[in-house]
Amino acid sequence: MRVLAGLCGLLVLASCGSKGPRSFTDEEFTYTGSGFTVSAASIDFKDVRVGESEEVNFSVTNDGGKQTSINFSHTCPSEFSFKQTDCLFLEPGSGSCTIDSSFNPRKIARHSCLLTIVNDEGDKKTLVLSGNGVPK
User: Which residues does residue 77 pair with via DSSP β-bridges, in sequence order?
Assistant: First the structure.
């Protein structure tokens, strides 16, 4: 829980465009393992104009038998941002929370990074995020 509090100060959600979510590269895929599931294995924001922003939301669900909390870290450049809601205490069996991810390219290029999600038991899931910054 101490790590989550430290991370929360660093996590900022960028403003989002009105086009709605882009796509999960593995639609309908649920990334499972001991303790929790994630509703996507990877996220591709596809083409986003430089200076604009797109958002994709995904969920984390506690499948374990006791209450848990979710923390996350990433290797992402500033073009990506993340915000979690209600991930501090997930009830056992089906408690869930949402992580909002945004992509706001600042230059024309392919961007990608890794987002690692960890519960307080040490179970980990890693997602690949990617997107293309394209001309205005």
Answer: none
